[in-house]
Automatic annotation (TrEMBL), chains A, B:
Record-given protein name: Thiamine-monophosphate kinase
Group of enzyme by EC: transferase
Keywords in alphabetical order: ATP-binding, Kinase, Magnesium, Metal-binding, Nucleotide-binding, Thiamine biosynthesis, Transferase
Binding positions for Mg(2+) 4 per the UniProt entry: D36, S49, D79
Domain (PurM-like C-terminal): residue spans on this chain: 152-306
Binding site for substrate: H58, D271, Y327
Protein species of origin: Litoribrevibacter albus
GO biological process, alphabetically ordered: thiamine biosynthetic process; thiamine diphosphate biosynthetic process
Catalytic activity: thiamine phosphate + ATP = thiamine diphosphate + ADP
Residue ranges constituting the PurM-like N-terminal domain according to the UniProt record: 34-141
Keyword Transferase recorded: yes
InterPro entries attached to this UniProt entry: PurM-like_C_dom (IPR010918), PurM-like_C_sf (IPR036676), PurM-like_N (IPR016188), PurM-like_N_sf (IPR036921), ThiL-like (IPR006283)
Binding site for Mg(2+) 2: D51, D79
TM stretches of this protein: none
């Protein structure tokens, strides 16, 4: 199957997703796939984020293609969630070592399930030959964006869902051969949950939208909580103090791993794609209502203090080695 | 140097380019680099195109980094030119095997010269580790886009500039070791011109804009003239007849290579990034004026006929082997 036939049969149907929903918002496409460029006719605050996932760096070569397709779109939508945006559409540039149709069908299926959930069409792309690399640019409307630079001294720090699951899931996934050889499977359901948290993160779109007007600063937890909070500290010119004992740890994670390890992953492990944000103390009641309505836990994990040049992010009640504090990476 | 310092020192200055010009158009950025997403506030027809260049597929590992930076942005802007769009901004996702600062500085310099020419800021991106791969999404406004599907029976077919130079340049570049070992350098200036045509194509932005309202269908010549004209034929439901004797061949190309070879490259070689378009016969005078004003040659190379299912693109007066007709590729 050549490039054009491939695009026709596999990618073209993705451009029909959500068309009607978009029309009803007054925004629409004059052109999607199939010309030199897509043409979007609209107005407002258009947020967009581009992210690349590289085989061997961001995922292992044996990730199920369905999960990979899901994950590539999920991590991009997570960036939109962190802006408090409503997803509108996305583009896909995929570099493949070869065209293996069953693999590609499963990859497309994984993207489709998420695209259908958020009613977003694929509107353009590029297919190239080379080492497996996937770049997606996701676009959304955000009438009232929430940035990283709005944290104020006295604000509380919150995080959605639970932390550390994805790092535990990655550990389990990489270690699965030795586990399957072992005789005990007492935790197999919990382990599957953790692996899914790594492979198929949930972009917190609805929560992100609900936090507009409440959160003073926001981002998604992709590099690891401490590394990500550092961005808020630097952009806002404040310091962040995290209470290590308050971090939300899932039941699955606490059943599968001892506390110091779970807490370390919660502090420094990445890939959870939860929202971390700050809000003034008087927003606490509103936040409880948002948590109740969305069904997603919101946990207070720290506070914003005046800027402290030597330690932009510090941790209280830590029971783990924190030499990794301030960790950042080239990946 | 870590990822964040790298972005700070090298990529951040690119986001300042063209800021004032964009403000004067009533469009502007609430956020560029440095948050979860960029936020553009504007309205109108936003055209955008995403393209990936992979080392070993779209460029050789020894391409000068300055040329590579230039080329990556140029091929994306060429897609906007083919829509008759005015470039506004771009995003960059770059995957690097390592951070080699001098290389990266030269790469950024190459992007900058083109970004400054068209007054477009870099507004977002992603830096990842892996095999050298560069993905750019370029965005522009096009009040009156020109698509591929507007060609009418009776229209003439035109192309800008000259064809085949880039294919010749690639040939010369790959063969340069054996050439430099030879004693004769009679054509060295011509050869440099051809290599530059491959490494540093000129996006025909101003010409593309001038052709709005004149051209009935348009695209840029990236895969090779015959392969690209096939897209117009298929999208418009017509046939294209090309007169092989009318193809514009540059003086440099005709001095360096014999006619059959030059003509073959003009027909099937890609990477020239000239504009190929159709227009009704009564537009000929307007086209002469556009050519005069832009200083870019516009050559009539064929005509549009009723649809011919067996041969969507056919060639008259061919003096080369045309078994490659209908050629398409996965790259």
């Amino acid at each position: 199957m050549d490039e054009f036939a491939l695009i026709q049969t596999l990618f073209q149907p993705l451009q029909e997703i959500g068309s009607e929903e978009n029309a009803s918002t007054g925004h629409g496409f004059l052109k999607k796939i199939g010309d030199d460029a897509a043409v979007w006719k609209g107005q407002g605050n258009l947020a967009f984020s581009i992210d690349t996932l590289v085989e061997g760096v961001h995922f292992t070569s044996d990730i199920p293609p369905y999960d990979l397709g899901y994950r590539c779109l999920a991590v991009n939508l997570s960036d939109l969630a962190a802006m408090s945006a409503t997803p509108l559409f996305y583009t896909l540039a995929i570099t493949l070592p070869e065209i293996h149709e069953p693999w590609l069908r499963a990859f497309v299926d994984g993207m489709r399930v998420l695209a259908e959930r958020f009613h977003i069409p694929l509107v353009g792309g590029d297919t190239t030959k080379g080492p497996l690399t996937i770049t997606i640019q996701a676009h959304g409307l955000c009438p009232h964006p929430v940035y990283r630079d709005g944290a104020q001294v006295g604000d509380d720090v919150y995080v959605s869902g639970s932390l550390g699951d994805a790092a535990a899931g990655l550990h389990l996934w990489l270690d699965r051969d030795s586990r399957s050889a072992a005789s005990t499977h007492a935790h197999s359901k919990d382990e599957d949950f953790l692996i899914q948290r790594f492979h198929k993160p949930t972009p917190r779109i609805v929560l992100g939208q609900a936090l507009s007007g409440i959160a003073s600063a926001m981002l998604d937890v992709s590099d690891g909580l401490l590394a990500d909070l550092r961005h808020i500290a630097e952009a806002s010119g404040v310091s962040v103090v995290v209470d290590a004992q308050s971090l939300p740890i899932s039941d699955a994670l606490s059943r599968c791993f001892e506390m110091p390890q779970a807490n370390e992953w919660a502090l420094t492990g990445g890939d959870d794609y939860e929202l971390a944000f700050t809000a003034p103390p008087d927003m606490e009641q509103k936040l409880q209502a948002v948590a109740k309505q969305s069904g997603i836990a919101i946990t207070k994990i720290g506070r914003i203090e005046t800027v402290n040049d030597t330690q932009k992010v510090s941790v209280e009640n830590a029971n783990v080695d924190l030499t990794r504090l301030g960790y950042n990476h080239f990946s």
